[in-house]
Structures are given as structure tokens and as C-alpha cells.
Amino acid sequence: MTFGKNLSKFRKEKGLTQEDLVKRSGVAISQIRRYETSKSTPSLDAITKLVKALGVSIDEMVFDKTTGIAGNKIIDRELLEQFEAISIMDEDEKYVVKKILEGVIVKHQVERVMKPKAQKSWSERFREITDKLAEGAKDYSPDEIDNVIDEAVEAVRTKRYAHS
Questions:
Q1: In this predicted model, what pLDDT tens digit does every residue of 20-42 receive, in sequence order?
Q2: In the chain, where does the domain assigned CATH 1.10.260.40 lie?
Q3: Which of 88, 89, 72, 71 minimizes the C-alpha distance to 80?
Q4: Which of 49, 101, 123, 131 is deepest in the core (most CB within 10 A)?
Q5: Is 3-78 a domain of CATH 1.10.260.40?
Q6: Maximum CA extent, the chain
Q7: Residues 6 or more apart from 157 whose CB is under 8 A from it?
Q8: Nearest to 57 by CA among 87, 33, 93
Q9: d(CA 49, CA 85)
């Protein structure tokens, strides 16, 4: 799909007229018309203004949707934008975000597996579990605990569970 077809498609998906897009982007209406009919190729500055006004990424606007990697997998636009923002962080920041995500994912998986009892809330039940874990871990060093957590996360990822 050409840039012009993508521009027209995204504008219409947002329920905007060409005049609305002019107001949002600051790009002249004559240029928008020329872009949409593929009679002109926009500058990078014009592309940037248009994608910001439409709330889409440059790769979506310039390329066919099937050429994107994450865009095909992640339907939630806000989440995709957050991952794009994370992708330009330094390695230490990325590491922290990955660890936080791992924790949230593990929590979600535990919630799916362990249905809380009706008489206790999930937070009460979670506190009981963490208290038991803390009691059992009191004789271990922080490094040993980190290793156990890493192994548990890996087991959940690969669906390998210890049988006792």
C-alpha cells in the first residue's frame, strides 16, 4: 500500500476530514490532497506532523501493515507505543523494565493457576504465601534467593514444574 493510501485510510479510520487533518497537523490541505492521490511525496517533516496528528507510527504510515513485526502482534496501540519508548532506553533501564514485566507476568500466571478462596481476598492470600516464602527463605542468601526466583520464572516460561 502506498503512503497516500495509508494516509487516507488512517484519516478515515480516525473519522477526520482533510480539513480536520490540516488543523491537527499544520500541513496544507493542497499537500494532503496531493499525498492522498500519490501525486506528491511528503518530506520527513510532513510525515512526522501527519503521523503525530493521526496517532500512528511512521512505519505504519510508510509501509504496509504486514511489514511491521510488533505491530502485527500487539493490538493495543498504547502498549505498542510504550514498547517503542522502552526500545530506545539504555540497557540498564531496559533490564529494570524487563524484570518488572516478568514479575507482573508471573503474578498473572499465579492468579490464573491459584484461584483465591471465596472467604479470603487475593491480597490476603498473597500475603500468606509471601510470608511462608519469607519464612522458608530466611536461611538463604540474597543471591541464592535470586537464583531460585530466576529458576521459577524460567520454569513458568517453559511450563516446567517441579513435582513433589
A1: 999 999 999 999 999 999 898 88
A2: 3-78
A3: 71
A4: 49
A5: yes
A6: 73
A7: none
A8: 87
A9: 18
